Amino acid sequence: MKNITYQSTRGGESGVSASQAILKGIAADGGLFMPSEIPQLDRPLRELAGMTYQEQAYEVMKLFLTDFTEEELRDCIDKAYDSKFDNPEIAPLVHVGVAYVMELFHGNTIAFKDMALSILPRLMTVAAKKNHEDKEIVILTATSGDTGKAALAGFADVPGTRIIVFYPKGGVSHIQELQMVTQKGDNTAVIAIHGNFDDAQTGVKKIFADKEYEKKLAEGGFRLSSANSINIGRLIPQIVYYVHAYAELLGSGSIEDGEEINFVVPTGNFGNILAGYFAKLMGVPVKTLFCASNDNKVLYDFFTTGTYDKNRDFVLTMSPSMDILVSSNLERLIYLSTGCDARATAGLMLQLARTGRYTVTKEMQMRMKDFAGGYATEEQDAEVIRYQYRKRGYVMDTHTGVAAAVWKAHWEETGDQTKTVIVSTASPYKFSKSVLEAIQGPMMLTDDFAIAQELENLSHVPVPKAVTDLKTAEIRHTAECDKSDMEAAVSRVLGI
Question: Which of 34, 294, 316, 471 is most buried by its number of CB atoms within 10 A?
């Protein structure tokens, strides 16, 4: 097995081990860590089809995390993907009409972020020991709704760590906010910023890039790391469920060995769909990765025109985890599309920082031909949620609805017969009011728990414990700050 090291997309660091890249979170030059090469699967997909999710996870992750021992990695995997998930398949596939839906919301925070954030704290703890880290690791994260809770749950009371989560006040659902502000753990802090998710993400990146502040933290006995999808330790576990989906379809006889399939992914920060691209590069027969956007269709415009332009109105939608105008993980695809040219990548990222836009070359666009952009309006999102419930009794959340609407439009236009997997990123109970209104129309109910009960009556799927527990949970985090005051807010939490 080849030794895989990591380098920055902007050229400032190279030869970094997997454990070091996970600990650092982001490269010193502001770039994102990428593997020195994308390894090929060393087991046939037919063989993987006979394995459990945990065994498949080991077969994928061992190829990237080459400085972890087999014992270390298997232990991390077994403790991550256990009874926290309410379905033994971990990521079950459900046949819904002309597509399969891969449900990634069976973890304890009922969103797909659990798939990676159940294991990241364990990987990070092992990485800290490997690298003789003597400072307390401060996980600094911006969230558009789901990463925050999943990261908080993963790192709560993990020795040697603290976690600080910033979220946009008014920019997440009430259930998402409750999940975060009631989080237990002596090492947890949650701060609402006056701004949107892009403001939160930009603020976190600025803190990481501030070398003087890094020194101040070190003097206080702290070092920063990230649980956002900019951390390669988040991205690698996400590759697993794409491999798993193909293996499941193969094992059930739904596809032939080598037959290509599509994935349709509701996309915000671009980490989830990028993991699907890594799976393709590793040897999974993927035809097209459909990047599904909501009304904040910056990615749709990018894949359509070759120009990324964040200079537009920010739209608050009923799929808030996708309300993003700066998709951080796209930098990794840009890097690959330049032929791994760090200087060219850094130049484009500088243009984005200075002008809010950049345009890629025709050659780069050709290298991204495995992606297709699509978007759904609020009305189309609601319409497909209503359609799937009335026709098949299947209830999906508002983000999955965006992906389903994009696939429906493509299928009706082209008649594409390729077997297709829609990636379902959250339980409908995370966005009960929007889902219920999509199915039944405007309602008088305003209490989230009464709405969840109404959704249970409609769907015959029990309200998850992750929601019912919130009813009596104590609100523990009430801090707020301006978007320009985030560094000071971190200092207040750490007492430095």
Answer: 294
Element (H, E) at 123: helix 120-130
Q: What is the Cα–Cα distance from 268 to 300, expressed in whole angstroms?
A: 11
In order along its 496 residues, the chain shows pLDDT tens digits of: 899 999 999 999 999 999 999 999 999 999 999 999 999 999 999 999 999 999 999 999 999 999 999 999 999 999 999 999 999 999 999 999 889 999 999 999 999 999 999 999 999 999 999 999 999 999 999 998 888 999 999 999 999 999 999 999 999 999 999 999 999 999 999 999 999 999 999 999 999 999 999 999 999 999 999 998 889 999 999 999 999 999 999 999 999 999 999 999 999 999 999 999 999 999 999 999 999 999 999 999 999 999 999 999 999 999 999 999 999 999 999 999 999 999 999 999 999 999 999 999 999 999 999 999 999 999 999 999 999 999 999 999 999 999 999 999 999 999 999 999 999 999 999 999 999 999 999 988 889 999 999 999 999 999 999 999 999 999 999 999 999 999 999 999 999 9
Return the number of other C-beta atoms located less than 10 Å from residue 192's C-beta: 22
Q: Three-class SS of residue 423? A: strand
Rounded to whole angstroms, the Cα distance separating 156 from 152 reads 6
The dihedral through the CA atoms of 407, 408, 410, 414 has a sign that is: positive
Contact 395, 428 (CB under 8 A): yes
CATH of domain 93-111+233-470: 3.40.50.1100
Cα gap 339→176, rounded to integer Å: 39
**Any idea what the Cα angle at residue 32 is, between residues 316 and 354, rounded to 5°?**
60
Say if residue 134 is exposed, middle or buried (CB neighbours under 10 Å; 0-12, 13-18, 19+). exposed
Q: Count the Cβ atoms, other than its own, within 10 Å of residue 75.
A: 14
Taking the C-alpha atoms of residue 477 and residue 489, their distance in angstroms, rounded to an integer, is: 13
Q: Amino acid letter at 329?
A: N
Q: Give the residues across from 374 on adjacent strands.
A: 292
For the four alpha carbons of 422, 427, 431 and 436, in that order, the dihedral sign comes to positive
Find, among 48, 52, 43, 62, the residue nearest to 1 by Cα: 62
Contact indicator for 235, 182 with CB cutoff of 8 Å:
no
The sign one gets for the Cα dihedral 266, 269, 270, 273 is: negative
Is residue 428 within 8 Å of 396, Cβ to Cβ?
yes
Distance (Å, whole) CA 17 – CA 130 = 11
Instruction: Give me the residues paired with residue 452 across strands.
Output: none
In sequence order, the 6+-apart residues with CB closer than 8 A to the CB of 171 are: 144, 145, 196, 197, 316, 320, 323
Query: DSSP secondary-structure letter at 26?
Result: S
Cα separation, 227 vs 125, whole angstroms = 13
- Which pair of tokens denotes residue 423? 């990636």
